[in-house]
Specification:
The protein is α/β, with parallel strands linked by helices. It has twelve helices and eight strands.
């Protein structure tokens, strides 16, 4: 292992404040995970009490991620995955699903939460072809030039960029559309983008606003619900895969599964097209 690899693996994680709730750990709590603190559970419980349809949406979103990764690995032949805002490792991790379909699949997890990365590194210590880095997805150049990313993924070949339930944490002032575009622009033709995003609740706006006010004040992290019409503008120039931009429960659902009422969350899979002959001349 060369000195750059050692430096990456030895990256010291910032001191963790167990008294400050984290979106990644709250999400883990909603999914029934164990990698969370009491303060995370308190915020998560208040949110779930305010919006009883919340946890169904969280679980449906996680199931969407599993289905899209399996489709990419098993049906579309994708062997490289960049999971941005990956969160705390929990049931149905990307590398487990991808490598079950193709043992040669390689995955890089990226998150800004040191607890998420600490747990990911412990989980991945003996897993080949999978790495986790502490980085801010809002800086695509910094992420894509990290040594562990470059050593694990061949960015000259197609990859799958996963942005699952993370862009709603990025306010308009930080231009989530430009962030999406930067990753897509630097990916090879034939790469895929899979994303999911929370949307306004059409029937319970007041309850949703109250829940989000508490969530944002507790975590210090913004949360912006966006309509699918806006999200679709981020996908200009990409080939939208069936069934399109739909709620996560409607995206290639498992047969004979009935979903309970849930907050609206939209998901989509899109492909970066190959250049036209004119563009390659």
């Amino acid at each position: 292992m060369d000195p750059i690899d050692v430096a990456e693996l030895a990256l010291s994680l910032p001191e963790i404040d167990s008294n400050r709730p984290s979106p990644a750990r709250i999400y883990d709590f909603w999914l029934g995970g164990s990698q969370n603190f009491a303060v995370d559970r308190q915020v998560g419980q208040r949110a779930a009490a305010e919006m009883p349809t919340l946890q169904a949406a969280i679980r449906a979103n996680r199931a969407f991620l599993g289905r899209v990764v399996h489709h990419l690995a098993a049906d579309l032949g994708v062997t490289q995955f960049l999971d941005l805002g990956s969160g705390v490792p929990t049931v149905g991790n990307v590398h487990e699903i991808a490598q079950q379909a193709n043992p040669a699949a390689r995955v890089v997890y990226v998150d800004i939460d040191p607890v998420a990365i600490a747990h990911a590194r412990a989980l991945l210590a003996k897993v080949d072809g999978v790495e986790a880095i502490l980085a801010d997805l809002r800086d695509p150049d910094a992420v894509l030039t990290r040594p562990l990313v470059r050593e694990t993924l061949d960015l000259s070949a197609p990859i799958a960029i996963l942005m699952n339930a993370v862009l709603h944490f990025i306010p308009d002032t930080e231009h989530p559309d430009a962030i999406v575009r930067a990753y897509v622009d630097q990916a090879a033709p034939g790469s895929y983008l899979a994303l999911s995003h929370a949307a306004p609740d059409l029937d319970h706006r007041r309850e949703q606003d109250k829940m989000l006010d508490d969530y944002q004040s507790s975590t210090g992290v913004p949360f912006i619900n966006r309509d699918p019409d806006l999200i679709s503008t981020w996908l200009t120039g990409l080939e939208i895969q069936p069934p399109g931009l739909v709620t996560v429960a409607e995206w290639q659902p498992e047969p004979d599964i009935e979903n309970p009422p849930m907050l609206r969350t939209y998901g989509v899979l899109a492909r970066k097209p190959n250049p036209s002959p004119a563009e390659t001349e």
